[in-house]
Protein backbone atom coordinates (compact mmCIF):
# COMPACT_ATOMS: atom_id res chain seq x y z
CA UNK A 1 0.00 0.00 0.00
CA UNK A 2 2.84 2.39 0.84
CA UNK A 3 4.43 1.61 -2.52
CA UNK A 4 1.20 2.43 -4.38
CA UNK A 5 0.76 5.71 -2.49
CA UNK A 6 4.38 6.62 -3.15
CA UNK A 7 3.99 5.77 -6.84
CA UNK A 8 0.83 7.87 -7.13
CA UNK A 9 2.58 10.77 -5.40
CA UNK A 10 5.52 10.55 -7.81
CA UNK A 11 3.16 10.44 -10.79
CA UNK A 12 1.28 13.49 -9.51
CA UNK A 13 4.53 15.43 -9.05
CA UNK A 14 5.76 14.45 -12.52
CA UNK A 15 2.48 15.43 -14.18
CA UNK A 16 2.34 18.70 -12.25
CA UNK A 17 5.90 19.51 -13.26
CA UNK A 18 5.22 18.75 -16.91
CA UNK A 19 2.02 20.76 -16.90
CA UNK A 20 3.63 23.74 -15.17
CA UNK A 21 6.54 23.70 -17.59
CA UNK A 22 4.47 23.24 -20.73
CA UNK A 23 5.39 26.72 -21.98
CA UNK A 24 9.03 26.30 -21.04
CA UNK A 25 11.38 27.77 -23.66
CA UNK A 26 14.40 25.65 -24.47
CA UNK A 27 17.82 27.26 -24.85
CA UNK A 28 18.99 27.98 -28.40
CA UNK A 29 21.56 25.17 -28.25
CA UNK A 30 18.95 22.49 -27.49
CA UNK A 31 18.45 20.36 -30.60
CA UNK A 32 15.53 18.15 -29.57
CA UNK A 33 16.27 15.54 -32.25
CA UNK A 34 19.85 15.11 -31.00
CA UNK A 35 18.82 15.13 -27.34
CA UNK A 36 16.03 12.60 -27.93
CA UNK A 37 18.40 10.27 -29.79
CA UNK A 38 20.96 10.53 -27.00
CA UNK A 39 18.31 9.79 -24.36
CA UNK A 40 17.00 6.82 -26.34
CA UNK A 41 20.53 5.47 -26.72
CA UNK A 42 20.86 5.50 -22.92
CA UNK A 43 17.47 3.80 -22.54
CA UNK A 44 18.31 1.18 -25.18
CA UNK A 45 21.59 0.46 -23.41
CA UNK A 46 19.77 0.06 -20.09
CA UNK A 47 17.13 -2.14 -21.78
CA UNK A 48 20.01 -4.40 -22.86
CA UNK A 49 21.05 -4.55 -19.17
CA UNK A 50 24.44 -3.13 -20.17
CA UNK A 51 25.04 -1.22 -16.95
CA UNK A 52 28.70 -0.59 -17.81
CA UNK A 53 27.57 0.88 -21.13
CA UNK A 54 25.15 3.26 -19.42
CA UNK A 55 27.87 4.32 -16.97
CA UNK A 56 30.23 4.91 -19.90
CA UNK A 57 27.68 7.15 -21.64
CA UNK A 58 27.05 8.96 -18.34
CA UNK A 59 30.81 9.57 -18.08
CA UNK A 60 30.90 10.69 -14.45
CA UNK A 61 33.51 9.29 -12.04
CA UNK A 62 30.94 9.09 -9.23
CA UNK A 63 28.62 6.89 -11.33
CA UNK A 64 29.36 3.25 -12.04
CA UNK A 65 27.47 0.24 -13.36
CA UNK A 66 25.97 -0.55 -9.95
CA UNK A 67 24.10 2.77 -10.08
CA UNK A 68 21.81 1.32 -12.78
CA UNK A 69 21.20 -2.19 -11.44
CA UNK A 70 18.01 -1.26 -9.56
CA UNK A 71 16.61 0.32 -12.74
CA UNK A 72 17.40 -2.90 -14.61
CA UNK A 73 15.45 -4.89 -12.02
CA UNK A 74 12.45 -2.61 -12.53
CA UNK A 75 12.68 -3.00 -16.31
CA UNK A 76 12.74 -6.79 -15.92
CA UNK A 77 9.38 -6.68 -14.15
CA UNK A 78 7.85 -4.75 -17.07
CA UNK A 79 8.87 -7.32 -19.66
CA UNK A 80 10.02 -6.74 -23.20
CA UNK A 81 10.51 -3.22 -24.54
CA UNK A 82 7.99 -2.49 -27.31
CA UNK A 83 8.27 1.14 -28.40
CA UNK A 84 8.83 4.74 -27.45
CA UNK A 85 5.87 6.90 -26.58
CA UNK A 86 5.55 10.62 -25.96
CA UNK A 87 8.57 12.78 -25.31
CA UNK A 88 8.75 16.22 -23.72
CA UNK A 89 11.51 18.67 -22.83
CA UNK A 90 12.11 20.93 -19.87
CA UNK A 91 14.83 23.55 -19.56
CA UNK A 92 16.38 24.11 -16.15
CA UNK A 93 19.53 25.38 -14.45
CA UNK A 94 21.82 23.94 -11.83
CA UNK A 95 22.21 25.75 -8.51
CA UNK A 96 25.23 27.55 -9.96
CA UNK A 97 23.32 28.70 -13.07
CA UNK A 98 24.43 26.17 -15.71
CA UNK A 99 21.65 25.42 -18.20
CA UNK A 100 20.53 21.88 -18.96
CA UNK A 101 17.60 20.25 -20.70
CA UNK A 102 15.58 17.30 -19.43
CA UNK A 103 14.30 14.82 -21.99
CA UNK A 104 11.28 13.03 -20.52
CA UNK A 105 10.71 9.91 -22.59
CA UNK A 106 7.88 7.41 -22.15
CA UNK A 107 8.82 3.83 -23.00
CA UNK A 108 6.23 1.13 -23.60
CA UNK A 109 6.83 -2.41 -22.35
CA UNK A 110 4.67 -5.50 -22.58
CA UNK A 111 3.43 -4.99 -19.00
CA UNK A 112 3.19 -1.20 -18.85
CA UNK A 113 4.94 2.11 -19.32
CA UNK A 114 8.05 3.57 -17.73
CA UNK A 115 9.17 7.19 -17.73
CA UNK A 116 12.84 7.97 -18.27
CA UNK A 117 14.37 11.37 -17.65
CA UNK A 118 17.74 12.07 -19.22
CA UNK A 119 19.26 15.50 -18.69
CA UNK A 120 21.97 17.06 -20.83
CA UNK A 121 24.24 20.08 -20.67
CA UNK A 122 25.04 22.26 -23.69
CA UNK A 123 28.17 20.20 -24.48
CA UNK A 124 25.87 17.11 -24.71
CA UNK A 125 27.34 15.63 -21.53
CA UNK A 126 24.87 13.87 -19.26
CA UNK A 127 23.58 15.85 -16.31
CA UNK A 128 21.33 13.07 -15.01
CA UNK A 129 19.49 9.87 -15.87
CA UNK A 130 16.66 8.26 -13.96
CA UNK A 131 13.71 5.95 -14.29
CA UNK A 132 10.26 6.36 -12.77
CA UNK A 133 7.46 3.82 -12.69
Task: Describe, in plain words, how this protein is organized in 3D.
This protein has 133 residues and is α+β, with helices and mostly antiparallel strands. It contains four helices and four strands. It has a four-stranded antiparallel beta sheet with strand order 1-2-3-4, with helices on both faces. Strand 3 and strand 4 form a beta hairpin. It is globular.
Structural features:
133 residues; alpha+beta; four-stranded antiparallel β-sheet; globular
What layout of secondary structure does this protein have?
Layout (H helix, E strand, L loop, with lengths): L1 H19 L11 H16 L3 H8 L10 H10 L2 E13 L5 E11 L2 E10 L4 E7 L1
Antiparallel strand pairs: 1-2, 2-3, 3-4
By DSSP, the count of extended strands is 4
Largest β-sheet summary: 4 strands, antiparallel
Shape descriptor: globular
Q: Spatial order of the strands in the main sheet? A: 1-2-3-4
What percent of residues are in strands? 25-35%
What is the C-alpha radius of gyration, as a whole number of Å? 15 Å
Report the total helices.
Answer: 4
Helix content: 25-40%
Instruction: Name the poorly predicted regions.
Output: 18-23
Mean pLDDT comes to: 88
**SSE string, helix = H, strand = E?**
HHHHEEEE
Amino acid sequence: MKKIISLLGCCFIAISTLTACGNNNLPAWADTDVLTQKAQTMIDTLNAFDYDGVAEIYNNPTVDASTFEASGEIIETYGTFESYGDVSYVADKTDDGIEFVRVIQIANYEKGKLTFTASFFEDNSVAGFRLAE
